[in-house]
Every structure is written in C-alpha cells, then in structure tokens.
Specification:
iron, Cytochrome p450, binds protoporphyrin IX containing FE, 20 helices, single chain
C-alpha cells in the first residue's frame, strides 16, 4: 500500500516537473538560430503594471529587430513569432504550409474558442472558401448610410453630455463601442439593434457582460484549465452559450429581406439552404459582429488618443480644405503603424517542415504568428524615428500617400490588415468609418487628454489606449 502511494507521488511530481519544463523551455526541434523570449515575459501584462509597449521594448524588441523571428510562449504552447517583412511575406504567401488554425483547433476546449468557433477568419481551405462565399460581398459592399446617421447620433450624445458646460471629460470606450457596434450591425449585418438609442442598449450590455466572463488573464494564458470543471469557467461557458443563442435567434428574427446582400440575410439563407450548419451560421454571425466592431473601435480609440495628445496634428486635420483629405489619411496610416488594433496574432500551424528565409527551419505542427506592433516599430523598416508619430512620413499629396500605404501593405511593412489572399475583408469599410468619425469629432470639438488619465496602452491582447478619458470642448463658430 505504502509503495503504491510512494510511486503515485513520484509519478505526479515527475509529471508536474515535465509540465513546468515544457513551459520554461521551447521544444528541442524548434529552430536554434533564432532567440527565445523568456517564458515569464508572456505573463508580465497580467501580473505587473507594464503595458504592451513597455514589455515589447524591454524584452522583445532587440531580438526581433536583429533576427526577425523569435520563439515565444503564448496560450499554453511555444510558438514562432515573426516581424521581418520578408519572412511575413513568405508566411502570407504560403497559405498551405502556414495554414490558418484558429482557436477552435489551437485551444479547442477553451471558453474563448466556444465564443467565436470556426469562422471565416480562422478557417482554412474548403471551409474558408464556403464561409467567404456566403459573407464576403456583404462586407465588401456594405450600406454606408447608417454611418452618417450614427455619427450624427454620436455627436448628439456628446453634446448632451456637455450640456451648458464649457467642456466635459468622458471615458470614451463605451460610447465608441456603441457607435462602432451600431455601424456594423446596421451597415453590414443589416439589423438595427437601436444601440445608440436611449441610455442603455441591450445588445451592448450583453456583449460587455459576456466579454467580462470570457476574458480572464489566467485562463487566457492557460486555456488548458478551461477543460476542468472550475465553477467560474463553467459559468462563463454557459453565458457564452446563452449569448450565442440569443444573438443567433435575433439574426434569424430580424434580418432584413429587403436587403438581400446584407450578411444577416446571406447567413440565414445559407442556414435555410443547409449550406451552413447551425453552428457554422452562429460562428460566422458572431465573428462578423465581433471583428466588425471591436477592430474599428480599437482604431478609433487610438485615433482619438493621437488627436488629443498632439494638438497641432488635430488642428491640421481640422483645417484641411482639400476634399481628398491627404493629411487625414496620413494620420490614420500612421496610427495603424504605431497602434495596430491587432498587435499580435498567432493562428497558423505548419503543415510540413518548412524554412523561413535562408535558414530558419520550422518543423511540422508548429504555431506561427505575426506581431504588427513589432513590424510597425521596427527601426530596420521605418528608420530611427520609428517611435515618433510622424504623419508626414507618408508624403504630402494624396496619390503619394495612398501609394506608400499600398506598397507598405504589399511588402508586409504594414501588416495591420494582414494582406494578400487572407487580407481583411473589412478594411475599406473600417477606413471609411474612421474617416467619418475623425472628421465629425474635429469638426465639432477641441479634444484633449484628461489630466487624470493614466497614459498607457493595453497590457495584453488587442492594442488601444487603456480606459482613455477625453476632454471635449465645443468649438466656437467664428
Ligand atoms: C481597423 C479595423 C480592422 C483591422 C485592423 C482588421 C484587421 C484584420 C486582420 C489583421 C485580419 C487577419 C487576421 C488573421 O491573421 O487571422 C483580418 C481578417 C478579416 N477581417 Fe478584419 N480588421 C478590421 C476591421 C474589420 C471589419 C470592420 C470587418 C467586417 C466584418 C472585418 C472582417 C474581416 C474578415 C472577414 C477577415 C478574414 C478574411 C479572410 O481570411 O478571408 N475586419 N482583419
């Protein structure tokens, strides 16, 4: 009896020791000619006051600028993270070798994966083609009218907050989330959830609640533990299911048959025609709503921050008389470079042993990803002033600016929207939306960063100023 206990104990200790070694050291077959980021760096955002820029500058930047790729621990496994544009191009071009493999495959039992499932962003091969066939058109050719109407509503909401005061300080995340959500649900999904009408929106409240359940730093770092019957995670999972069911039913009940090209109608038709299963319908309906409002929201928050932080830039955008708005374009592109909404994405898995550049040999079955924050700030790519917010680097005339932007995307110097075959389908829509947003804000208000706001970006995950607070002062019409 005693020896059984003894051997069980030794077995458990050995297993734990093995698990710890697996976290501390990358697997033996990972390339030796690129550096390793110490495993604890991945947890600093959750357990210290450092933000992503601090962590990047202190622990990652030097190695990535020198080697263009590193080994990094993230989401319960070791991965290869790439920033060098030449390597990125190889990854983006070789879709079959660096195959998309989203959360539903990478961390299958996780609560996060149960939220977004298998969708057009994460799928590979035939499934990706099927999802794209259903929804690509509605994203690429949205109804843009709701954006104009919602921008007026946004201005009205801010004006109401200002009331008779000279200026008002507003934590902007919630308001802008509603604005972005209203835009995508009406313009692309074709459903009006009345997000901007009234004090509280059911849709907005539900999304905030379900996100608060999903995003827990410990379980994001160790999604493996989502597989255990831990009460808080069981609750999170059931809240996700509840939200998905509510949302899916709302798309079925409220999609607009007068708008046959809206994503709502396309998805419901595909479900009825049994082109998509119920789960595929839900997964794709969710990802449209999530990517379609979260990503533009992040960009709007960063834009708001740079306008408020740099009064001269704000004034130049305001004074721009050229209807093509070259300076505004430069400000947006520069914001995408320095604050790419999706800072790091690791969702590709090698389908065979392959090579990056001349000599980085990556074995089969390794997760690879890109770091937009790193590429955007790489001094080899953007020069020694890569850390300076400098819209002028994009040029003066609109043709020159747009051409530089286009080249930066093609060469993967600016992978904020990915690029190539798997490029973001919502780029044009998002750029239209944020241009409208910036013009409306600078046309109505003088904005500045509230002195009480602690200037930092998010500690982990998507990139934006954390909890941004802005002072709005109505412009005096001369
Ligand atoms: C500023 C806003 C946005 C940014 C920065 C952004 C960025 C990205 C990135 C980096 C990817 C590639 C993801 C990966 O590597 O797995 C992507 C893909 C995608 N995005 Fe966006 N996105 C934005 C807005 C939108 C919007 C508004 C929509 C509309 C619903 C959208 C729909 C998609 C879709 C469908 C894909 C997958 C394309 C494919 O693989 O065929 N995005 N986006």
């Amino acid at each position: 009896m005693f020896s059984i206990i003894k051997y069980t104990f030794i077995g458990v200790i050995t297993y734990l020791f093995y698990l710890i070694l697996e976290i501390i050291f990358p697997p033996f077959n990972f390339p030796k000619n690129i550096p390793t980021i110490p495993f604890y760096v991945s947890f600093l955002g959750a357990y210290t006051n450092l933000d992503q820029a601090d962590i990047y500058n202190l622990y990652i930047r030097e190695k990535l600028e020198k080697y263009g790729a590193v080994k990094i621990y993230f989401a319960s496994r070791w991965n290869i993270l790439i920033t060098k544009p030449e390597y990125l191009l190889e990854m983006f071009k070789n879709e079959d070798v660096f195959a998309k493999s989203g959360n539903h495959i990478k961390i299958p039992g996780s609560v996060l994966a149960s939220y977004t499932g298998d969708n057009v962003i994460s799928a590979h091969g035939e499934l990706w083609k099927l999802y794209r066939e259903v929804i690509a058109q509605s994203i690429q050719f949205p109804d843009l009218d709701p954006i104009t109407k919602n921008t007026e509503k946004l201005i009205q909401i801010i004006n109401d907050r200002i009331g008779s005061q000279k200026q008002v300080s507003i934590p902007v995340t919630d308001i802008l989330q509603k604005y972005s959500l209203a835009n995508v649900t009406e313009s692309i999904l074709g459903i009006d959830y009345k997000v901007l009408d009234g004090e509280k929106s059911i849709m907005h409240e539900k999304i905030k609640y379900v996100k608060s359940q999903i995003f827990n730093p410990f379980f994001l770092n160790f999604p493996y533990f989502d597989n255990f019957p831990i009460p808080s995670r069981l609750k999170a999972r059931s809240e996700v299911t509840r939200f998905r069911e509510w949302y899916g039913q709302s798309v079925i009940d409220n999609h607009d048959r007068q708008r046959p090209n809206s994503a709502g109608t396309k998805l419901v038709d595909a479900l009825m025609d049994e082109k998509l299963t119920e789960k595929q319908f839900l997964d794709n309906a969710i990802i449209l709503m999530v990517a379609g409002h979260e990503n533009p929201l992040l960009l709007m928050l960063s834009l708001m921050y740079v306008l408020a932080k740099y009064p001269l830039i704000q004034e130049t955008v305001r004074q721009e008389t050229d209807p093509a708005k070259p300076y505004l374009h430069s400000v947006i592109y520069e914001t995408l470079r320095m604050y790419p909404p999706l800072g790091m994405i690791i969702n590709r898995c090698t389908t065979r042993t392959t090579k990056l550049g001349d000599g980085i040999v990556i074995p089969k079955g390794v997760y690879c990803g890109y770091n937009n924050f790193g590429t955007g700030r790489d001094r080899n790519v953007w020069g020694n002033n890569a850390d300076v917010f400098k819209p002028e680097r994009w040029g003066c005339e609109i043709e020159e600016i747009n051409q530089k932007y286009s080249i930066a995307k093609k060469t993967a110097n600016l992978p904020a929207f990915h690029g190539r075959k798997r490029a973001c389908l919502g780029e044009k829509y998002a750029l239209y939306e944020v241009k409208n947003f910036v013009c409306a804000i600078v046309g109505e208000y003088q904005v500045s960063v509230d002195a009480s706001w602690n200037e930092r970006i998010t500690p982990a995950g998507p990139i934006c100023p954390l909890g941004l607070k802005i002072n709005f002062e109505k412009l005096v019409v001369a």
